[in-house]
Fold this protein.
Amino acid sequence: MSFFQGTLNQFVLSKEQIQKIVDGMTEEFVEGLSTTDPKNITQQPSFITRLPTGQETGLYLAIDMGGTNLRTAAVHLLGDGKVGVTMEKHEITQELKTGTGEAMFDWIADCTASLLKKVVIDMGNADLHMGVTFSFALHQTAVNRGKVLAMGKGFDLSDVMGKDLKDLLETGFSRKNLPVTVSAIINDTVGTLVSHAYISPSTKIGVILATGTNAAYIERASEVSKYNGPACEQMILNTEWDAMGKASYLPQTKYDKEIDAVSLVPGFQEFEKMVSGLYMGEIFRLVLVDLIEQKAIFESSLNGQVPEALRPAKAFKTLFMSTIESDSSADHKAVDKVFKTSFGVDSLTSEDRTKVFNLVHAIGQRSAAMTAAACATLLYKANGGSVHLDAVKEITTIGIDGSVFEKYPQFSQKMMKELTKILGEDRASRVRLELARDGGSVGAALVAMISRNGGAM
């Protein structure tokens, strides 16, 4: 077997390898339901105990605070699964990120006031209810309360750590004379599940598959032994599956291990490092450099010499993989375009282009297969276990948001094909994979509505 073929084969997963992922993640999901170890961040209760029906109506505010931008939105729930969204996006400056908490939350209030001028609503004397998507670590104690643990992403705010986010926001609104009540604080994955359930009531799982990856699902409350809140029948859990994945069951190659070893936190988020958009391109780059040095590819044009432009970490973007795989023609001319434009490599042979295409395909296929395995595990959990899944006849929808799922060629079809292998045709025929959007804003507004009406505690 050639060096190239042996390398390629490392990314082609067997049925046994897929089953090991299913079994391993099942064990971690179950462990996360009961663990009180503060280092284990998986299976976080959201305090949301029901999903929308799709018939809800009303106007709710939402903010989605990330590392770069703040999005403010007025979400009109129109019933029949329909929404109208008025949104503004504001860049969070470095000055704000490193200033006082008071300045940050005054600015958030000002951004909210700007939105309210645009939507022109009759507020009267009533409070406006807001849902908040907060992309930073919180110790959540209720559906609308959580203490800020750490922020990162360039933030260094004074007088914020350890304080309750609801209090910080509402104090800022009060200083600006805005009658806004924070009714819900959520994670973006929970928002994806809730917002897609409004459109497709059969939704039981929400997934983010973009730069990073995560998932949320509905679990029977009796299974969540670490939850000590008010009694309920079910609970949406933020799985934090990005933090799952033990080397004992993941099919890691030497390239995956290299990525993990040089990451900020080695041994953490191994699953995410094998499947998400932040890492797929880097996996390909490491493999390609190895193949070039072994003269297993590009021999006639490079003769074992790696171009300088390919040497820096993250130099090969996952977007390049998407461009290459979008051209499935026999001559794979998109390979020429990517390598000539971005790396100054030309005069590739037909064999070289085919090798590049096949390698890109294998890495993308592995990501889809591993994500499908994780989804299969949650399908079992969300439907009461593998035995009960046979008895479930209704459709179960998985709402998936993110650039990898939306834009990587044929990704949803690859996932569905792998799910069929794992579940069998009969079970898989009852599963739908659907693109979900606007989870951060619509999802937050919907949870605010659910909370206000007593559906979340």
About this structure: Residues 350-382 form the longest helix (33 residues). The mean pLDDT is 90.
